[in-house]
Structure formats: structure tokens, C-alpha cells
């Protein structure tokens, strides 16, 4: 793996706007219709803090509390974007469940991660306030961003924060994420 290759997995409940966030970031467009994702990978070259990164972003199918963590979403992944929608309390409650599954799968104390409150334009139907999002992020030592893919607000910030979290833990000359050294028996 080239030292500037970074793989980011985007996880969260169904329909929280994972694909919309990624498509806005990689293709600068917002598609209003809903197509459930099975899985797809997007690629973008990003210049961040004067370093050029080849970023692969893995868009995953929506998870619920019974979903098993797919090993593809843990092995070889440098950083995570965990998305809930500010107008869905259930999707917010899923974040800790997904975070704990990743931690336990990877056998580490913490992971480079950004917790994202999506659809921030839907203020009238908001169920989760910003303070709750920040608190959850603080408890898990992750970054936190509220964003709207629809209005293209804070979209790039999500992925920049994720690169920042990765760089805090992965020195530039060591691009292999810890979980890629795991064995599956
Ligand atoms: N108002 C608003 N709607 C959004 C936003 N982002 C996504 N949506 C809408 O929410 C719905 C679901 O968006 P997707 O991006 O497909 O959600 P997803 O999380 O990828 O869904 P799954 O693939 O099922 O997991 C679509 O109708 C989007 O248009 C946003 O920022 N604001």
C-alpha cells in the first residue's frame, strides 16, 4: 500500500445520508432520491496540510443493531466516518453500537473516527441536538461534525477531520492500519 493511500469506511443506519455525503464530496452533487446501497467504493485525491492523499471511501449498506460487522469494513481501514441523522434518535443510538463493534473486532482501545450528524438542514424535525453529538464524540475520543449534504455544508470537513484523526495515529511513513495485521481464524 502506498504511504499516502488512506481507506475510510462510512457506516451508520439505513437512510441517514451516507451515500449523499460521499457523492457530494466526490462528485459535487446532491441526489434527492433514495437508492439503498449494497456497497461501493469511491476514490478521491485530496490535498490536506500540503500532503496529497489517495483516499478510498467505502460506502456501506445501512446497519442495524443485529448486523454483524463485515470484516471488509475493519481490515485495512485507516479511519471511520460514523453517520447518524439529526432527525433520527434511533440512528444516533446506533453510533455507540457500531463504534463498540469496530473496537471489539479490531482489539484496540480507540480508532481514528469522526461522528457525523447529517441532514443538519432539517432543523424543524431535529431529534438530536448538537451537544448530544459532541458529548458522544468526547466520550469516545472522536471528532464531531454536523453536516448537510443537501446544502453542501461541512461536507469536506468530515473527511478532513477523518484524515486528521488518522494522521494523529499513523505517522506518514507507516500507512498500514493496525487491523490489517489481524488474522481471521
Ligand atoms: N434534507 C436532507 N436530506 C438528505 C441529506 N442527505 C441525504 N438526504 C436524503 O436522505 C435519503 C437517504 O439518503 P442516502 O444517502 O441514500 O442514505 P444512505 O445512508 O446511503 O442509505 P443506505 O444506503 O440505505 O444505508 C435520500 O432521500 C436523500 O436525498 C441532507 O443533507 N439533507
Automatic annotation (TrEMBL):
Its main location: membrane. One of its GO terms (molecular function) is metal ion binding. One of its GO terms (cellular component) is plasma membrane. It is a lipid-anchor. It comes from the Eukaryota. InterPro entries: P-loop_NTPase, Small_GTP-bd, Small_GTPase, Small_GTPase_Ras-type. It is found in: Cell membrane. The keyword Phosphoprotein does not apply. It catalyses: GTP + H2O = GDP + phosphate + H(+). It holds the Pfam family Ras. Keywords: GTP-binding, Hydrolase, Lipoprotein, Magnesium, Membrane, Metal-binding, Methylation, Nucleotide-binding, Prenylation. One of its GO terms (biological process) is signal transduction. Belongs to the small GTPase superfamily. Rheb family. This is Rheb small monomeric GTPase.
